């Protein structure tokens, strides 16, 4: 199945901003994160199709997965 992955801020370093990936049916978001070599603690916000999601959410064909890192400021 095909999914679109959108990475933001520091997660884009050494990776593409937007990717279309082919993943096996039943793949969970956490498996996608692992396949991109992104440490789990670097994903502060995970969204699937514009909605906040859990790491173990199974992906569906055509999903858009967006990942945001922790943001500091003051």
UniProtKB/TrEMBL annotation:
Matching Pfam families: ThiS
Protein name: MoaD/ThiS family protein
Domain of life: Bacteria
Lineage: Bacteria, Bacillati, Bacillota, Clostridia, Peptostreptococcales
């Amino acid at each position: 199945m095909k999914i679109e992955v959108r990475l933001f801020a520091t997660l884009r370093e050494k990776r593409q901003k937007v990717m279309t990936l082919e993943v096996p049916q039943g793949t969970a978001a956490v498996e996608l994160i692992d396949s991109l070599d992104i440490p789990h603690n670097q994903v502060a916000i995970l969204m699937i199709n514009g909605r906040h999601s859990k790491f173990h959410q199974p992906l569906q064909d055509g999903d858009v997965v967006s990942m945001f890192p922790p943001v500091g400021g003051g």
